[in-house]
Automatic annotation (TrEMBL):
Domain HTH araC/xylS-type: 137-237
SMART domains xrefs: HTH_ARAC
Record keyword Cytoplasm present: no
Species assigned in the record: Fibrisoma montanum
GO molecular function, one term: DNA-binding transcription factor activity
A Pfam family annotated for this UniProt entry: HTH_18
InterPro entries: Homeodomain-like_sf, HTH_AraC
Name of this chain's protein: AraC family transcriptional regulator
Amino acid sequence: MNPFILSFKVYGLNVHIHKHSAYQIILALNNSLTSIINNVPYTDIVGFVIRPQVPHACTILPDTTVCILNIEAYSRAGLQLRSLFADDQPVVILERPADVGRVFDPLRQQPPDQWPTSLSYLLTDERSIGKVDDRVRKLIDYIEQHYTLHTLTPQRLAEEVFLSPSRMAALFKAETGSSPSKYLLWTRLRHAIDMALTDRHKHLTEIAYETGFYDQAQFTKYMYEMMGVPPRALKQNSDLIQVLG
């Protein structure tokens, strides 16, 4: 699993105009979808790859299953996606299944139901999950074990590996492509989203606090910034959304 990728399956759920700080890949695994991107309508397409901060919306029919991958912009996977775009190009439109194979070559011979797993694997740099400096591996393990703590600061992380905060941050970025603060945020969001979708009776304030956010307002702020939707909308549609990773 790449910690800088959040992936979902969505079943027949319309998404209103929004934007976010992550790269996003949207693929219809059956049928097609309709989207508005930067005020331009696209109909009967298989999907698209979109840059951060580009306004877009999707109409997904009730019998259509869509895979959505959100990728941290400054991770290695995000930098990999950046190469798909010309300088001023906001989106790569995938009109037909053949276009998916053209953009992501390993998917060329695969059926659509295998695309989500293959894409996550394709975008996973080995250094993101295994072959990293021992100190970075220690930091990753520490964050995974202590992400619920509100006192988990850069200073505390640096002390864990006997480095200055600036040296620790530089080492972490060199090994993973992103900062320890972003890693911590994505870890908290991943757990919070999973909790919001699987525990319908737990209030968002509880979810926020139990996953390391100060309060529901902070959880909502970062959720909207990274995903383009508030956690309340996610929770209200939990029967239509499945977390893949």
